[in-house]
Amino acid sequence: MKNLIITIEKTGTGLSAYAGDYPGIATVAGNFSELKENISEVIEAETDYLLEKGMKKEAKDLKNSTIEYAVDFNQFFEYFSMINKTEFAKYIGINPSLFRQYTKGIVPVSDRRMAEIENGIHKLAKDLSEISFV
């Protein structure tokens, strides 16, 4: 099974997305939920097109691809501005001032540090998904 990496970029009106390895896969949307739905529709249309062209293997590979969404680090915190950078940095154990410099592109982020931040985002999502209000 192939990974289909969808790159997401913030635009003036919402989001755009494209698969760098697959020129026929691109869309725009107002929010992330809509974007994911649009990507599914584009993949379905592209799969149908490949089948019409007799490219059964390619259609099957595309249909069975695992979709991975990739977002630019700086744009992530711009789009999800409700995440307080200072408090998030404390949550994952990074100096808040240094973290703000990372998000503004003032200081480069190492691959190791980027992995820590990404793991922190996933941990926060997991923590939030386990909460119920009473």
Provide mean pLDDT, rounded: 92
Order of helices and strands: EEEHHEHHHH
Give the amount of beta strand, in percent.
15-25%
The N- to C-terminal Cα distance equals: 42 Å
Overall tally of domains: 2
Main sheet characteristics: 4 strands, mixed
CATH architecture classification of the largest domain: 2-Layer Sandwich
- The poorly predicted ranges are none
Shape: elongated
Spatial extent as radius of gyration: 18 Å
CATH class division of the largest domain: Alpha Beta
The count of β-strands is: 4
Structural class: alpha+beta
Helical content band:
40-55%
Describe the structure.
It contains 6 helices and 4 strands; from the N terminus they run E-E-E-H-H-E-H-H-H-H. By secondary structure, it is α+β, with helices and mostly antiparallel strands. The chain has 2 domains: 3-71, Double Stranded RNA Binding Domain, CATH 3.30.160; 73-129, no CATH class. It has a 4-stranded mixed sheet with strand order 3-2-1-4. Helix 1 (32-52) packs antiparallel against helix 2 (56-63) and helix 4 (85-92) packs across helix 5. The termini are far apart.
Short key terms for the protein model shown above:
alpha+beta, 134 residues, Double Stranded RNA Binding Domain, 20% strand, four-stranded mixed β-sheet, 6 helices
